[in-house]
Amino acid sequence: MRKKFMAIAMSTLLMAGALAGCGGGAKQEANEIKIGGNFELTGSVANYGKQAVNGIQLAIKQANAAGGINGKQIKLVMADNKSEAAEATNAITKLITQDKVVTVLGPATSSNTIATLQVSQDNKVPLITPTGTSEKITVDNGKTRPYAFRSCFIDPLQGTIMANFASNTLKAKTAAIYIDSSSDYSKGLAQSFESVFTKNGGQILGQEAFLQKDQDFKSTLTKIKAMNPDVVFLPAYYEEVGKIVKQAREMGMNMPFLGADGWDDAKVVEIAGAAPLNNTYFCSHFSSQDTDPNVVKFREAYKQEYNQEPGVFAALGYDAGLFLIDALKRANSTDPAKIRDALEQTKNLQLSTGMMTVDANHNPIKSVVVLEMKDGKQVFKEKIAPQL
Fold first, then answer.
1. C-alpha distance from residue 267 to each of 119, 196, 251 (Å)
2. Same structural domain for residues 102 and 180?
3. What does each C-alpha distance from 362 to 98, 142, 231, 239 come to in angstroms?
4. What is the edge-to-edge ordering of all strands in the sheet holding 364-365?
């Protein structure tokens, strides 16, 4: 009887040990580190998500080929948030509670990223967005979110860069702002552009709004045309940008249109056409015309892997992968808290888009480029170094 009892007890202990091995976020298989990917693989901004994932997968493939992290291979577990905030929340919940990942990369857009933050912070699992630029992602009511990070610069910097470009390079005295009122990204950029442009002595003649997935913009464009601004600031994503610029040019609105990194996708040319995009400018994180050896190395590796030129979202996805891989090496642990600490301590890390140091608000200090569209091609205009 005693032997039977001991056998049952031992069986119970073994079962408990097996279940414990499938437990909390820091538990991993002995030979792998599970990382979550929460991206827009379908839906209105799927091109952003797919590019970012390409970049991340390349960084992980290179790291694994070089021996991984202390002999462990990195495994990327993907979830499609369908370009919707509610789906993004569902995706991160599954990745953390069911798939047991130690860090989550993504989403790509600001609104979708913001929708996932509470889950990340409550579970104390680091989140890195490659391309979410809203200031609210890393800072909440003046306090840095402890588990939120990014590998891209923030909206206030983009708005500042483009306001200064409008004032100093284009010599604009007046501007109109045309925002996507359903987008935190768009609203944040508009605020920073207006603040800096008016400080420069410029005048904002008015602001109009549209909603993502709108098709006909002529009513609000008519109001902007009547203002007769020197420039129009259009902080939006490529699908709406292409349609708006095309319709504006058809209405005889030939003034410069300005934007930010949401413009930076080849699809914008397919939607708007090459000629309508002439006399438009936007800022971004990366230029394929950059001759920096690190940019060239990344471009060649990406082209070899995917047989196409990388866009900015691919570059930032790659950077997010390098950012995390570097932190995993320095943390020497799969404990999310230790990974978080290592991310926070990142300094002078060489990425595809330049050198990066993480500031006190978990935002990267890095360079910005301004690009001009000419006959459907991006032309490098200016590069602005980071302010350290």
1. 32, 30, 22
2. no
3. 27, 13, 33, 29
4. 349-351, 354-358, 364-365
* Residue 143, in any domain of the structure: yes
Answer whether residue 374 is part of any domain: no
Q: Are residues 139 and 180 in the same domain?
A: no
| Residues 363/138, Cβ–Cβ less than 8 Å | yes
Count of domains forming the chain: 2
Q: What tens digit of pLDDT does each residue of 36-61 get?
A: 999 999 999 999 999 999 999 999 99
Range of the domain at 65: 32-152+291-367
Crossing angle of helices 110-123 and 85-97, rounded to 10°: 30
- Confidence band, pLDDT 50/70/90 cuts, at residue 28: low
Structural domain contains residue 10: no
The model's confidence at residue 291, banded by pLDDT at 50, 70 and 90, is confident
- Domain with residue 230: its CATH number is 3.40.50.2300
Is the Cβ–Cβ distance between 245 and 272 less than 8 Å?
yes
Res. 21: pLDDT tops 50: no
Closest CA to 133 of 363, 377, 384: 363
> Which residues, in sequence order, are CB contacts of 21 under 8 Å at separation 6+?
27
Query: What 3-state DSSP class applies to 32?
Result: strand
Let me know if 292 is exposed, middle or buried by CB neighbors in 10 A (0-12, 13-18, 19+): middle
For residues 55 and 127, membership in a common domain is answered with: yes
175-184 per-position pLDDT tens digit:
999 999 999 8
Of the three residues 284, 302, 319, the one that is the final residue of a domain is: 284
8 Å CB contact between 261 and 315: no
The answer to whether residues 111 and 259 belong to one domain is no
Asked if 133 and 161 sit in the same domain, the reply is: no
List the beta strands (DSSP E) in 127-235.
Answer: 127-129, 139-140, 143-144, 148-150, 174-180, 203-210, 231-233
Q: In this structure, how many other beta carbons lie within 10 angstroms of the beta carbon of residue 193?
A: 29
Together in a domain, 159 and 270 = yes
Q: Are residues 296 and 302 in contact, defined by beta-carbon separation less than 8 angstroms?
A: no
Q: Please tell me the total number of residues recorded for the chain in this structure.
A: 388
Residues 268 and 306 in one domain: no
CB contact at 8 A, 107 and 88: yes
